[in-house]
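User: Diaminopimelate epimerase. Structure?
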Amino acid sequence: MKFTKMQGIGNDYVYVNCFKEEVKDPAAVARFVSDRHFGIGSDGLILIRPSEKADCTMDMYNLDGSQGAMCGNGIRCVAKYAYDYGIVDKTDIAVETKAGIKYLHLTLKDGKVSEVRVNMGAPILEAVKIPIVSEKEQVIDESLEVEGKEYYITGVSMGNPHAVIFLDYSPEELELEKIGPSFENHKRFPDRINTEFVHVLNRNTVEMRVWERGSGETMACGTGACAVAVASILNGFTEEEVTVKLLGGDLKIFWDRKENLVYMTGPATTVFDGEIELPEAIA
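Assistant: Predicted structure:
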């Protein structure tokens, strides 16, 4: 199987061009290639497929084989791949995802894509649609008990469900590998949850760490950064344009309140191209 390893601020995936390749068991292949000792090493697998509605389709799988609806860092890399490898020859493209069609603008440097701006669509704030079990229509600064400790969450979906928690200290201090699974699998999150732990630095800048459902802690999460920006604005902590600092780098997020659209801007990088022999059971 031919593949390309790509990353968006450290959120790395294995990309397969399904205009040319066939992947029969994506969940099994995702588990295999994601293994950092016996496979390629990644946060998951992203298949770039033909689309009848857009320029291409992004089909993503987490490292545990579960399918995701959207990935903000992943879709920037899909756009870079599509242009750099000749699937498209234009700088404004549409990508079909399980969270709807997303529209992207590509910035070129030396003939290749260096940065991508993504129209991530409207944030979903209704608790039942995220989904989060709550008696309220929206979950904003709502109490949640985890392992005997009280946290306050703000719920946002950007195609994936997110619970955003604001801290009065740096998230570097968290033992995330210990508490992350308890949030992910909490009974109030029927489809599991991505959890962001955020410290507000000023009116235009926040820092965060993320525990992603199905992947654990990752260097970055694009939909998570968008959810964090929306939650920061809803709670009155920041302006509508926010720089979100993640372990792998920075993303610029703008929530256009008039149009109710969230825009994410960040880099996309090709790491290497390769070929891998799949185990016979999943080939």
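The mean pLDDT is 97. The longest strand covers residues 100-109.
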